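step 3/5: co-fold with adenosine-5'-triphosphate
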Amino acid sequence: MGTPPKVYEGSHIWVEDPEVVWIDGKVLKILGDEVEVETSDGRTVTASISKTYPKDEEDHAEGFNDMTKLSYMHEAGVLHNLEIRYQINKIYTYSGGILIAVNPFQRLPDLYDIKMMERYKGAPFGELSPHVFAIGEAAFRDMMNEGTSNSILVSGESGAGKTETSKTKTTKMLMQYLAYLGGHKEGEGRSVEQQVLEVGFVI
Ligand SMILES: Nc1ncnc2c1ncn2[C@@H]1O[C@H](COP(=O)(O)OP(=O)(O)OP(=O)(O)O)[C@@H](O)[C@H]1O
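step 4/5: write tokens
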């Protein structure tokens, strides 16, 4: 028995769209290498099958907090999942051990406060919602357990939120969390917290 076809009459797929990049729709007819699709905004379009992607059957209301839970991992599915989460201010999503952050361009109340730091401290990776503090926690714990240095790679295009998420100044989230884990003691010269916040970065 062969693998069942992913595009067939009645199946739900993603097709390219000049306005919204990818739009979902239902296959009406297969026409050789092409497919006729009724899009979710009510149009009928024809697309090359090789440029379509199967759509996950279930649309999780809050999206999947880890991309590895998607039945189909492709650009359209990944973007759709990030969009669903973004609409409800869930800017963080895992892809396995990697954290994807979508720039909210607004202050999200409570997301980075001391209560949130307390929640993530000591929590096993993956137990709580995806968060930059979970990445800091995992890196810090590994460093302590292995007794070796550790590093966190932050990557993204200009304006994506790398600086805000990680680097320099006391307000930046990742360093703030590591400083919090490192502790703060009065009267002992420069505290671990202060030293962590004074580190330099390789940019
Ligand atoms: N998590 C966040 N919460 C709130 N605002 C954010 C967040 N991430 C980014 N921003 C907003 O987006 C702006 C641009 O982010 P940032 O400067 O971190 O980008 P960058 O990736 O470091 O860009 P570049 O590579 O050009 O330096 C910030 O000044 C801030 O207004």
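step 5/5: annotate
The helical segments are 75-87, 114-120, 132-146, 162-165, 173-182, 192-197.
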